[in-house]
Specification:
heterodimer; A: mainly beta; six-stranded mixed beta sheet; three-stranded antiparallel beta sheet; 9 strands; B: mainly beta; four-stranded antiparallel beta sheet
Protein backbone atom coordinates (compact mmCIF):
# COMPACT_ATOMS: atom_id res chain seq x y z
CA UNK A 1 0.00 0.00 0.00
CA UNK A 2 1.68 3.18 -1.21
CA UNK A 3 1.56 6.46 0.71
CA UNK A 4 0.99 8.23 -2.61
CA UNK A 5 -2.42 7.77 -4.20
CA UNK A 6 -3.10 8.08 -7.93
CA UNK A 7 -6.23 7.29 -9.93
CA UNK A 8 -5.95 3.83 -11.52
CA UNK A 9 -6.77 5.12 -14.99
CA UNK A 10 -7.58 8.19 -17.06
CA UNK A 11 -8.59 8.43 -20.68
CA UNK A 12 -9.32 10.96 -23.38
CA UNK A 13 -9.52 11.29 -27.15
CA UNK A 14 -6.48 12.23 -29.27
CA UNK A 15 -5.71 15.93 -29.02
CA UNK A 16 -7.47 16.29 -25.69
CA UNK A 17 -5.97 16.90 -22.26
CA UNK A 18 -5.68 14.68 -19.22
CA UNK A 19 -4.50 15.33 -15.69
CA UNK A 20 -3.19 12.79 -13.22
CA UNK A 21 -3.30 13.54 -9.52
CA UNK A 22 -0.88 12.32 -6.88
CA UNK A 23 -2.06 12.72 -3.31
CA UNK A 24 0.42 12.44 -0.46
CA UNK A 25 1.11 13.97 2.91
CA UNK A 26 3.13 16.46 4.89
CA UNK A 27 6.17 14.18 5.16
CA UNK A 28 6.53 13.65 1.42
CA UNK A 29 4.90 15.90 -1.15
CA UNK A 30 4.42 18.60 1.46
CA UNK A 31 8.17 18.95 1.94
CA UNK A 32 10.01 17.53 -1.06
CA UNK A 33 10.23 17.70 -4.83
CA UNK A 34 7.96 15.47 -6.89
CA UNK A 35 9.05 13.51 -9.96
CA UNK A 36 6.94 11.84 -12.61
CA UNK A 37 7.84 8.73 -14.63
CA UNK A 38 6.39 7.30 -17.82
CA UNK A 39 6.52 3.56 -18.40
CA UNK A 40 5.52 2.40 -21.85
CA UNK A 41 4.33 -1.22 -22.14
CA UNK A 42 7.18 -3.66 -21.52
CA UNK A 43 9.69 -0.80 -21.23
CA UNK A 44 11.97 0.83 -18.70
CA UNK A 45 10.54 3.72 -16.67
CA UNK A 46 11.60 7.13 -17.94
CA UNK A 47 11.85 10.38 -16.02
CA UNK A 48 9.39 12.93 -17.45
CA UNK A 49 9.19 15.59 -14.74
CA UNK A 50 11.58 16.40 -11.89
CA UNK A 51 11.59 19.02 -9.12
CA UNK A 52 7.80 19.37 -9.43
CA UNK A 53 7.70 21.02 -12.85
CA UNK A 54 10.98 20.68 -14.76
CA UNK A 55 11.30 18.61 -17.91
CA UNK A 56 14.47 16.70 -18.81
CA UNK A 57 15.93 17.36 -22.20
CA UNK A 58 13.84 15.80 -24.95
CA UNK A 59 10.55 15.72 -23.07
CA UNK A 60 7.92 17.70 -25.01
CA UNK A 61 6.29 20.71 -23.40
CA UNK A 62 2.90 18.97 -23.75
CA UNK A 63 3.84 17.44 -20.40
CA UNK A 64 3.71 19.65 -17.31
CA UNK A 65 3.91 19.20 -13.57
CA UNK A 66 2.63 21.19 -10.65
CA UNK A 67 2.41 20.90 -6.89
CA UNK A 68 0.16 22.42 -4.29
CA UNK A 69 0.33 21.54 -0.62
CA UNK A 70 0.37 17.76 -0.33
CA UNK A 71 -0.76 17.01 -3.87
CA UNK A 72 0.88 17.05 -7.26
CA UNK A 73 -0.49 16.91 -10.78
CA UNK A 74 0.83 15.78 -14.14
CA UNK A 75 -0.84 17.33 -17.17
CA UNK A 76 -0.69 16.05 -20.72
CA UNK A 77 -2.06 18.23 -23.51
CA UNK A 78 -2.51 17.35 -27.18
CA UNK A 79 -2.85 13.68 -26.25
CA UNK A 80 -1.24 11.24 -28.71
CA UNK A 81 -1.49 7.47 -29.08
CA UNK A 82 2.19 7.29 -28.16
CA UNK A 83 1.33 8.70 -24.73
CA UNK A 84 -0.48 5.51 -23.77
CA UNK A 85 1.51 4.28 -20.79
CA UNK A 86 1.60 3.95 -17.04
CA UNK A 87 2.59 7.09 -15.16
CA UNK A 88 4.01 7.14 -11.64
CA UNK A 89 4.67 10.00 -9.28
CA UNK A 90 7.54 9.72 -6.83
CA UNK A 91 8.94 11.67 -3.91
CA UNK A 92 11.24 11.31 -0.91
CA UNK A 93 9.38 10.66 2.34
CA UNK A 94 11.03 12.16 5.42
CA UNK A 95 9.14 9.93 7.86
CA UNK A 96 10.04 6.74 6.04
CA UNK A 97 13.52 8.03 5.15
CA UNK A 98 13.02 6.53 1.74
CA UNK A 99 11.67 7.21 -1.71
CA UNK A 100 8.07 6.33 -2.46
CA UNK A 101 6.26 5.82 -5.75
CA UNK A 102 2.61 6.43 -6.39
CA UNK A 103 0.20 3.61 -7.18
CA UNK A 104 0.43 4.35 -10.90
CA UNK A 105 -2.07 5.60 -13.48
CA UNK A 106 -2.77 4.03 -16.84
CA UNK A 107 -3.40 6.58 -19.58
CA UNK A 108 -5.59 5.38 -22.45
CA UNK A 109 -6.11 7.29 -25.68
CA UNK A 110 -9.61 6.58 -26.91
CA UNK B 1 25.48 9.65 -22.94
CA UNK B 2 25.02 8.00 -19.56
CA UNK B 3 24.19 4.31 -19.73
CA UNK B 4 23.60 1.88 -16.92
CA UNK B 5 24.09 -1.76 -17.87
CA UNK B 6 22.76 -4.44 -15.55
CA UNK B 7 23.69 -8.08 -15.23
CA UNK B 8 21.58 -10.78 -16.84
CA UNK B 9 18.49 -12.63 -15.74
CA UNK B 10 18.72 -14.95 -12.74
CA UNK B 11 16.75 -17.98 -11.60
CA UNK B 12 17.02 -18.80 -7.91
CA UNK B 13 15.54 -21.27 -5.48
CA UNK B 14 13.49 -20.06 -2.54
CA UNK B 15 15.75 -19.16 0.36
CA UNK B 16 18.72 -18.37 -1.87
CA UNK B 17 20.37 -14.99 -2.47
CA UNK B 18 20.84 -13.02 -5.67
CA UNK B 19 23.37 -10.32 -6.50
CA UNK B 20 22.63 -7.95 -9.36
CA UNK B 21 25.21 -5.54 -10.77
CA UNK B 22 24.80 -2.15 -12.41
CA UNK B 23 27.72 -0.66 -14.34
CA UNK B 24 27.88 2.89 -15.65
CA UNK B 25 29.36 3.88 -18.98
CA UNK B 26 29.71 7.34 -20.42
CA UNK B 27 30.01 8.63 -16.90
CA UNK B 28 30.81 7.25 -13.48
CA UNK B 29 28.46 6.31 -10.71
CA UNK B 30 30.90 7.80 -8.27
CA UNK B 31 29.32 11.24 -8.23
CA UNK B 32 25.70 10.21 -7.89
CA UNK B 33 23.34 8.25 -5.74
CA UNK B 34 22.22 4.97 -7.26
CA UNK B 35 18.80 3.59 -6.43
CA UNK B 36 17.27 0.15 -6.87
CA UNK B 37 13.61 -0.31 -7.79
CA UNK B 38 11.58 -3.52 -7.93
CA UNK B 39 8.63 -4.23 -10.21
CA UNK B 40 6.75 -7.47 -9.78
CA UNK B 41 4.82 -8.82 -12.79
CA UNK B 42 1.86 -6.58 -13.55
CA UNK B 43 2.57 -4.42 -10.52
CA UNK B 44 3.83 -0.90 -9.86
CA UNK B 45 7.25 0.47 -8.98
CA UNK B 46 8.63 -0.20 -5.51
CA UNK B 47 11.72 1.52 -4.11
CA UNK B 48 14.22 -0.91 -2.61
CA UNK B 49 17.07 1.32 -1.51
CA UNK B 50 19.92 3.59 -2.53
CA UNK B 51 23.61 4.18 -1.96
CA UNK B 52 25.30 7.56 -1.68
CA UNK B 53 27.98 8.79 -4.10
CA UNK B 54 30.83 7.96 -1.76
CA UNK B 55 29.41 4.53 -1.04
CA UNK B 56 29.71 4.98 2.69
CA UNK B 57 25.98 5.17 3.33
CA UNK B 58 23.08 3.08 2.12
CA UNK B 59 19.43 3.39 2.99
CA UNK B 60 16.76 0.77 2.46
CA UNK B 61 12.99 0.58 2.38
CA UNK B 62 11.65 -0.81 5.62
CA UNK B 63 10.15 -3.74 3.76
CA UNK B 64 13.60 -4.93 2.68
CA UNK B 65 15.59 -4.04 5.79
CA UNK B 66 17.80 -6.89 6.91
CA UNK B 67 17.48 -8.67 3.61
CA UNK B 68 19.07 -6.28 1.12
CA UNK B 69 22.58 -4.86 0.80
CA UNK B 70 23.66 -2.26 -1.74
CA UNK B 71 27.37 -1.71 -2.29
CA UNK B 72 29.51 0.09 -4.84
CA UNK B 73 32.93 -0.37 -6.38
CA UNK B 74 34.05 3.07 -7.51
CA UNK B 75 37.08 1.64 -9.32
CA UNK B 76 34.80 -0.15 -11.78
CA UNK B 77 31.81 2.26 -11.64
CA UNK B 78 29.66 -0.65 -10.54
CA UNK B 79 26.92 -0.82 -7.93
CA UNK B 80 25.61 -4.12 -6.56
CA UNK B 81 22.33 -5.10 -4.94
CA UNK B 82 22.19 -8.34 -3.01
CA UNK B 83 18.84 -9.69 -1.83
CA UNK B 84 18.76 -12.69 0.47
CA UNK B 85 16.13 -15.15 1.75
CA UNK B 86 14.31 -15.03 -1.58
CA UNK B 87 10.64 -16.00 -1.73
CA UNK B 88 8.32 -16.49 -4.70
CA UNK B 89 7.09 -12.91 -4.11
CA UNK B 90 10.56 -11.63 -5.02
CA UNK B 91 10.04 -12.66 -8.63
CA UNK B 92 10.36 -9.29 -10.33
CA UNK B 93 12.38 -7.02 -12.55
CA UNK B 94 14.96 -5.03 -10.60
CA UNK B 95 16.12 -1.68 -12.00
CA UNK B 96 19.07 0.45 -10.99
CA UNK B 97 18.74 4.18 -11.57
CA UNK B 98 21.25 7.01 -11.19
CA UNK B 99 19.52 9.69 -9.15
CA UNK B 100 16.29 8.07 -10.42
CA UNK B 101 16.99 9.88 -13.68
CA UNK B 102 18.96 7.43 -15.81
CA UNK B 103 17.72 3.85 -15.57
CA UNK B 104 19.30 0.50 -16.32
CA UNK B 105 17.59 -1.97 -18.63
CA UNK B 106 16.32 -4.09 -15.75
CA UNK B 107 17.20 -7.56 -14.49
CA UNK B 108 14.57 -10.27 -14.21
CA UNK B 109 14.93 -12.33 -11.05
CA UNK B 110 12.79 -15.45 -11.01
CA UNK B 111 12.36 -17.41 -7.81
CA UNK B 112 11.33 -20.94 -8.59
CA UNK B 113 11.85 -24.38 -7.21
Amino acid sequence: QSVLTQPPSVSAAPGQMVTISCSGGSSNIGKNYVSWYQQLPRSVPKLFIYENNKRPSGIPDRFSGSKSGTSATLGITGLQTGDEADYYCGVWDNSLSGFVFGTGTKVTVL
Amino acid sequence: QVQLVQSGAEVKNPGASVKVSCTASGDTVGSYSVHWVRQAPGQGLEWVGRITPSGDSARYAQKFQGRVTVTRDTSTSTVYMELSSLTYEDTAVFYCARDLHYWGQGTLVTVSS
